[in-house]
Structure formats: structure tokens, C-alpha cells
Amino acid sequence: MKIVKKILIVLLLALVVIQFFRPEKNVSDPNDLEAFITQTRPPKDVQIILKTACYDCHTNNTEYPWYAEVAPISFWLDDHIKHGKGHLNFSEWDTYSNKKKDHKLEELIEEVKSGAMPLDSYTWVHGDAKLTKEQTIQLLEWAETVRFIYQLGVRPQ
């Protein structure tokens, strides 16, 4: 029993100490989505879907919930956000070539169609991010339309 008590004390101390070490927050200029919005022209309904279900992990601006202040959850969220931005970062849209934009939209379509996005781990806590059938259709129709424009080699203005 003494060994269990010592292990619990060490774990508690480690939990307290880790609270003093925080990952850097994913927060920048909220206007960094301007190029994406201007170029892809999502309708208002789609803009709401993107903000609710995508932007926290796929932009340079995350709206952090209260539990993001608690380690080790803060480190898990940081890793999750970095991974998401590595796949698609709407804030960096203007740096992508038209070919890459087309490919990113193709991936978005595949992930949403398969139900892989938004992640279940995200929608469990952010219930409003779970896409309805209607929202899924709206998002996919918009993405397919924009993708078609990029396939034509035209940069939307």
C-alpha cells in the first residue's frame, strides 16, 4: 500500500508541476482568413459551418475552451491543432498554388463525405460542430463548386 501511495503523490506532484508549462496558443490576426473568404466566396451558411466545425483546428486562430488551460489536455489540444493545420490551414490559403487549393478541397470533400471530419473527439465537446445532413450537403456543394473553378485554372476574384 505504501508504494501505491508514493506513486500517487509523485503523479499528483507531476500534475501540479506540468501546469506551469504551457504550449504556445494558436492565436493571430483574425483577418488572416480574408484571402480564403474572398477567393472561395462561401455563402453565409457555409461560413457558419466552417467557423463552427473547421476553423479551430484549421486556421491560425483557435477559440480555446476553459479546459485548454489544464495540462496535459493543453498539450493534447496543441498537438491536435498543429496536426490539423499541417493538413489544411485556411489562414495560409493565399500561399497555396491553385493546384494545391484544388487538392486541399478534394481532401476536404473526401474527409467530410466519409464522416472523418469534423473529428468525433471535437464534436463530443462541441456539439454544434456535428454536421447535419443538410450542412454536409451545403459544405460539399460549395467545395465542389470552388474546386471546379480551380480545376479550370482560374483564380476566383
Layout of helices and strands, plus pairs?
Elements: H1 2-18, H2 34-40, H3 44-53, H4 55-58, H5 73-87, H6 98-114, H7 120-123, H8 133-151
Helix pairs in contact: 3-8, 6-8
Can you walk me through this structure?
The chain has helices at 2-18, 34-40, 44-53, 55-58, 73-87, 98-114, 120-123, 133-151. It is mostly helical and 157 residues long. The protein has one domain (2-151). The radius of gyration is 19 Å and the shape is elongated. The termini are far apart.
What's the average pLDDT?
90
Number of helical segments? 8
Major beta sheet summary:
none
Alpha carbon gap, first and last residue: 70 Å
Class by helix and strand content? mainly alpha
Tell me the number of structural domains. 1
Q: In terms of per-residue confidence, which ranges show pLDDT below 50 for 5 or more consecutive residues?
A: none
Relative helix content = 55-70%
